[in-house]
Amino acid sequence: MATIVRGDADAQVQALKTALGAYETEYPGAEAALYRHNPGSIRVRVIDRRFEGMTKSRRHARAWNFLAARVPEDTMAEISTLLTLPPAELGNSFANFEFQDPIPSGR
Question: With 80 as the cut, is the pLDDT of residue 102 above it?
Answer without folding.
Answer: no
